[in-house]
């Protein structure tokens, strides 16, 4: 009988303890804490028709496809295609250049840039366009900020409206998840802004 009473009291204590336990809710999904490097820049100089500032933590390498690319006149590629890689962030800024030889070719390239940006409309939650204009350096263009789970988050083109055309497109080498890449995207966007602000033609 005594054992029965003791067991009963133990059960009652456990029951009361369970009743007073706080409710637990699942924690929201977290992401890794990212340590961003200090912003410092080099000047990109090459045999190409342009120069710009780029971050010391990025690596620029020639795009192997440029050797087989045809320009708008069907001539061999200029060899001025490159990738600005951000190894720490698993991202790359794909850069292409074309010489322009007529108003028709220029208009085609500008329309191509718009088409390539808006092909992400299916998955994009918004696409913002911003005009770029630095008359003192003859640098003009359009900047496309693409929001949502898209393959490319930033695209832009720069031109002198006469004979040079330069385009950039940012890609992350992973399945796009806008919420998870947002801090990194914001960080790299500042580098792209610096690149555009410092961009100049050599001729």
Question: How does this structure look, described?
Answer:
With 203 residues, this protein is α+β, with helices and mostly antiparallel strands. It has a single domain (41-201), classed as 3-Layer(aba) Sandwich (Protein Transport Mog1p, Chain A), CATH 3.40.1000. The protein is built from 3 helices and 10 strands, in the order αβββββαββββαβ. The strands form 2 sheets. Strands 3-4-5-9-8-7-6 form a 7-stranded antiparallel sheet, with helices on both faces. The longest helix has 21 residues, at 178-198.
On the 0 to 100 scale, the average pLDDT is 79
Tally of alpha and pi helices:
3
Task: Give me the secondary-structure category.
Answer: alpha+beta
Poorly predicted ranges (pLDDT <50, ≥5 residues)?
Answer: 1-6, 70-77
Please report the distance between the alpha carbons of the first and last residues.
Answer: 103 Å
Would you list the SSEs in sequence order as H and E? HEEEEEHEEEEHE
CATH class: Alpha Beta
Lay out the secondary structure.
Elements (H helix, E strand, L loop, with lengths): L1 H19 L20 E4 L5 E6 L3 E4 L19 E5 L4 E9 L3 H16 L5 E11 L4 E10 L3 E8 L4 E9 L5 H21 L1 E2 L2
Antiparallel strand pairs: 1-2, 2-10, 3-4, 4-5, 5-9, 6-7, 7-8, 8-9
How would you summarize this macromolecular structure in one to three sentences?
By secondary structure, the protein is an alpha+beta fold. The chain is built from three helices and ten strands. The chain has helices at residues 2-20, 103-118, 178-198, and strands spanning 41-44, 50-55, 59-62, 82-86, 91-99, 124-134, 139-148, 152-159, 164-172, 200-201.
């Amino acid at each position: 009988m005594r054992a029965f009473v003791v067991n009963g009291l133990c059960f009652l204590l456990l029951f009361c303890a369970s009743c007073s336990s706080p409710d637990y809710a699942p924690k929201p999904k977290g992401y890794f804490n990212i340590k961003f490097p200090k912003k410092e820049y080099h000047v990109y100089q090459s045999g190409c028709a342009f120069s710009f500032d780029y971050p010391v933590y990025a690596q620029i390498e020639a795009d192997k496809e440029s050797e087989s690319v045809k320009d708008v006149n069907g001539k061999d590629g200029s060899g001025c295609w490159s990738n600005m890689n951000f190894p720490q962030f698993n991202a790359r800024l794909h850069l292409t250049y074309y010489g322009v030889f007529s108003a028709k070719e220029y208009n085609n390239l500008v329309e191509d840039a718009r088409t390539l940006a808006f092909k992400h409309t299916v998955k994009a939650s918004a696409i913002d366009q911003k005009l770029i204009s630095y008359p003192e350096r003859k640098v003009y263009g359009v900047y496309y900020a693409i929001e949502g789970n898209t393959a490319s988050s930033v695209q832009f083109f720069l031109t002198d409206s006469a004979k040079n055309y330069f385009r950039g497109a940012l890609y992350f080498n992973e399945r796009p998840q806008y919420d998870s890449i947002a801090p990194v995207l914001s960080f790299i966007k500042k580098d792209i802004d610096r690149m555009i602000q410092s961009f100049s033609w050599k001729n």
